Every structure is written in structure tokens, then in C-alpha cells.
Amino acid sequence: MREYLGGANVEQAFEVFSAAAPEGWRVELVEGEIYVVPPANGEHEEIVSELSGQVRDHDKGLGRYTGIGLNVPGASETGHVVPDLVVAPKGSFDDEEEWHDSAPVLMVAEVTSSSTAARDRDKKIRGYARAGIPVYLLIDREEGEVLVHSEPSGDDYATSLKHKLGLTVPLPAPLGFELDTAEF
After folding, report:
1. Nearest CA-CA partner of 127 in 60, 55, 53, 75
2. How confident is the model at residue 1 (pLDDT cuts 50, 70, 90)?
3. Dihedral angle at the C-alpha atoms of 149, 76, 115, 124, nearest 10 degrees?
4. 12-38 confidence digits (pLDDT tens)
5. SS3 per residue for 25-87
């Protein structure tokens, strides 16, 4: 592959794949590896929509962003991820940038799909923790679980709580409300 891309490094190859990706597809760079992710299915998007609505009901001052690119530390100089949902104060990404600093982010949420579950459960935890994102919410459809990771510390989160999908799940500060996953 390196020969095909003219000896490009991973960052340069990432740019090539990003530019060539079909509309609606996401290209991410996670721990030095490039992933091309197809558009989500309807069930996935219903969960993201419900989650977004509950965040809005809790605090209208929070922005709920889908399709926003974040820079997170990784094996390469930087990592580029597009979480299923990013929660940050409104106006946090009011610029022309394609990839954003994760400093204002209060929570990222990922909803597993067969093509993304392994990364969502492993590599993304490390990247989000390294970036200092206070809460990583993982809605694991295959396992029927909701995992709430909080208190980032180095490559991991100090607290990781597992709940059955369908129950009410407490979200820690800085969010501090109960998420009803019965609609998920």
C-alpha cells in the first residue's frame, strides 16, 4: 500500500482516503490505523437521536454534535475520530476547521455496529482518555450493555460502570443526569 501511495506516511494516507471517501462515509485514524466506516443503519441512528434528545432535555445549553471530527492522541502524531455523538457547550466548534481540539468536549458517545464494535470497546477508550474527555458513553448493542467510562487517567478511565441496556443509567458530572435507555 505504501508504494501505491508514493511512500506516504499514515497522516498523508489518511488525507487521501478522507478525500476519496463516498458521501456519508467516515474515515478515522485511530492509533495509527485508518478505518473507513460506512453510513450507520436506522437502528443505530435512532439510538443516537434518542440520546441527543435526552441530553437536550437535560440542558439546552449543550450542543449535540454528530459528524464532528475530533483530534485525539494516538500512536501517530494525532488521531482523527468522528464519534457518533459529541456533547460540548454550544458554540464550541463554531469555526471552519475540519478536525477539532477535544478540550471543550464533556462526553463522547459511541453506538456499536458490527464493523466498529472492537475499536469502540478498546482503542477509542484509550484515545478518549488520553484526550481528557470526562465521559465516554458506550452503547454496546451486541452485548446489550451501556458502559459509562469517567475520570480519565492516562490511557484509561478510572471508573467504568456497566449497565444492562433498557435501564436508567446515571451519567456522572459534568453531565449529572439519568439516561433512560429503555428506548434504545
Report:
1. 75
2. very low
3. 0
4. 888 787 788 878 888 888 877 787 877
5. CEEEEECCEEEEECCCCHHHHHHHHHHHHHHHHHCCCEEEECCCEEEECCCCCCEEECCCEEE
Q: Which tens digit of pLDDT belongs to each residue from 106-150? A: 999 999 998 889 889 988 999 999 999 999 999 999 999 999 999
| Per-residue pLDDT tens over the stretch 62-85 | 999 998 999 997 745 568 999 999
Locate 159 and state its grid cell: 471508573
Does residue 8 contact residue 19 with C-beta atoms inside 8 Å?
no
Of 145, 140, 148, the closest CA to residue 165 belongs to 145
Locus of grid cell 455496529? 113
Q: What is 112-137 written as a DSSP string? A: --TTTHHHHHTHHHHHHHHTT-SEEE
How many residues would you count in the chain?
Answer: 184
φ/ψ of residue 121, rounded to 5: -85, -20
